[in-house]
Task: structure prediction
Amino acid sequence: MNVAQVTGDKKRYLPLLLLADEQESMIDRYLDRGAMFVLDDGGVKGECVVTDEGNGILELKSLAVLPDCQRKGYGKALVNYVAARYQGQYSILQVGTGDSPFTVPFYEACGFVRSHRVENFFTENYDHPIYEGGIQLKDMIYLRKAL
Result:
């Protein structure tokens, strides 16, 4: 298993990015200013994008693992890689996600704790309803982990 930073043509990973954030215009808001990493294990299995949000906060903007590779530790490996790489440079790693029965427990299992919420984020910022696990996502839930 190898994690490498992508420095050019990040859009070539668009199909994978769209698994984490299904609206391309939202991805375009952070892709150019973020650092992108891909996890390769006999082929690319996952990706993540992180951004500097100021005040010692690094934000995980996108984390996606191919559907047939989920629940095999790749997502957690990416989180751990980012945490280790940026430890000492940032004090907090945060992630914003929908209040989903799939994603929130994943991040909590990775050591994140709930921080705050932005009400109606998904309904106000996306051009279509977003569903995960049969639930329409409305609020953005922020979780944080000390680095």
Q: What stands out?
A: Strands lie at 2-6, 35-40, 44-54, 57-65, 92-98, 113-118, 131-132, 135-136, 140-146. The longest helix spans residues 74-86.
